[in-house]
Automatic annotation (TrEMBL):
Name of the protein in its database record: ADP/GDP-polyphosphate phosphotransferase
Task of the protein: Uses inorganic polyphosphate (polyP) as a donor to convert GDP to GTP or ADP to ATP.
Coiled coil: none
Lineage: Bacteria, Bacillati, Actinomycetota, Actinomycetes, Mycobacteriales
Gene: ppk2
Domain of life according to the entry: Bacteria
Amino acid sequence: MSANSRNVPTTGADESVGSPPKLDKKAYEKRLEELQAQLVEMQQWVRETGARVVIIMEGRDAAGKGSAIKRITQYLNPRYCRVEALPTPTSREQGQWYFQRYVEKLPTAGEIVIFDRSWYNRAGVERVMGFCTTAQYRRFLHQAPVFERMLVEDGIMLRKYWFSVSDDEQIRRFTSRREDPLRQWKLSPMDLQSITRWEDYSRAKDEMFAHTDTVTAPWYTVESEDKKRSRINVINHILESVPWEKVENNPPKIPARPEGDSTYERPPRTEFRYVPDVAGDLEKSRVKAKKK
């Protein structure tokens, strides 16, 4: 264990606290909306002050990272908040310094960047699946804390979250995806390796924490047995850990519409192509059902 690391788990698998009671839907939606409003205010502060924020989302497959990211970014200005989910490196990128393609995605002043998986791919899937050599893996464990310290020293606010889910809940979510045509694309043979290699991924995660859970850039674990709870908790932690302040926002006034030019005549509607109003059929069906 590195000298500057914090306490790290020693178990071979994600520690489970059991399934927590489900959140009340109305209470969840109300609190989520309040937190999302604060995220909008935080982004305004980031823009005004030129701050740079990097948020890393890691965890097992189906741990709830994606849905949490959607709730975080739902109302943020996409011009100043980017989600980066880098694909498999190209042959050119494979010949570069490992961190190089991630450096290109770091934020400039006034930006928030969320990594949906990050440089920690090397300590997880690449390590377990044999996509990197032992030398490359060891070099990563040595360089990652140094790299992150450089980011923080340069003023970047770095937050690292690990979404923790039990094996039973993971299988339940995989099964749900397989049965849902709208989400089957989220299930790949590589994802299913996380079931057959559960303990291998556990050991890789433990070693990753041992080397990279540092005082400068600590890991924060998000219990994700209940996705609603994990979303509320991670958004709340972001808002509490980033030292933002409310910025006075003066939205522009909406001007009065000037009087129209009496010489203008709108062309006949028949000269335009309109999208068919299939939505109107929904109202007709409702009225018809009401009459029965």
